[in-house]
Write a structure and sequence with these properties.
mainly beta; seven-stranded mixed beta sheet; four-stranded antiparallel beta sheet
Length: about 120
């Protein structure tokens, strides 16, 4: 079955960095669009960054210039490098895989990893 397993979250001071990783299995990874979402307490889940199967990455405005999404199709991994972290980046971060096969679409989620930015 499809599994997405996130890691790399933790507690970091403002201005610090973290690198999130997402290991995928059971999925046509090279054909999947990968993304990172986050959900802060009391807020809706929001899209943070996307990287399609072939194409350019995109980011929500609030993280542009600070976060970088990347993928390794050989290892079936997707990463989110987060620099200059701010308290408002505090959230549970989720890895998402989206795949289209013919007329059918599939979306898979990881369990999430907590990122806390605080002094």
């Amino acid at each position: 079955q499809v599994q997405l397993v996130e890691s790399g979250g933790g507690l970091v001071q403002p201005g610090g960095s973290l690198r999130l990783s997402c290991a995928a299995s059971g999925i046509l990874f090279s054909r999947s669009a990968m993304a990172w979402y986050r959900q802060a307490p009391g807020k809706q889940r929001e899209l943070v960054a996307t990287i399609p199967a072939g194409g350019s990455a995109d980011y929500v405005d609030s993280v542009k210039g600070r976060f970088t999404i990347s993928r390794d199709n050989t290892l079936k991994m997707v990463y989110l490098q987060m620099n200059n972290l701010k308290p408002e980046d505090t959230a549970v971060y989720y890895c998402n895989a989206a795949l289209w096969l013919g007329s059918r679409s599939y979306s898979y989620w990881g369990q999430g990893t907590q990122v806390t930015v605080s002094s």
